[in-house]
Amino acid sequence: MQILTLPGLYSSGPGHWQTRWEAELPNVKRVEQQDWDHPVKDAWLATLSVAVNAVDDEVVLVAHSMGCALTAWWLAAGMPGVVDKSKIRAAFLVAPPNVGRANFPAPTFSPMPLVPFPVPVAVVASSDDPWCDLSLAQDWAKSWGAELHLIGAKGHINGESGLGSWKQGQDWLNALIAKTVQ
Length: 182
What we know:
Layout: E1 2-6, H1 17-24, E2 28-30, H2 41-53, E3 59-64, H3 66-76, E4 88-94, E5 121-125, H4 134-144, E6 147-150, H5 167-180
Parallel strand pairs: 1-2, 1-3, 3-4, 4-5, 5-6
Helix pairs in contact: 2-3
């Protein structure tokens, strides 16, 4: 099984749990966007589809922040451009951002899709995320048919959150993956 990480705006730096997972865990690879600083929905969707098509195995998407919005749009649009949609096993969405807020740096991602997703999904939300109120993340998880994990006060669940390799997140991801093989 291949895990594809989908970082958010500006990508994920060296202290970010996604970067650590890519370095420490087998079968974890980052989807590299062409422009991390100015996300455009259609370009990011196309890059994700190319990355998925390049994988010969089953795929689990592990998204953070803007990567969650990308995943939501991609799944809601029916995984455009993907040859074998059945290889997408699950999506793990951490700290989805409020794409509809004023001055959001990637307006092409607004509004957030609110449809049930065709694969098992888990959402991880923080009680003090500066990019999204917890109640909104809870509403999205419900709309998507996702399992919700509350992590407590961990900010935007990024490098500044002090999670290191984030063992709890790995456990939640492994539990999600286990549900897809039963």
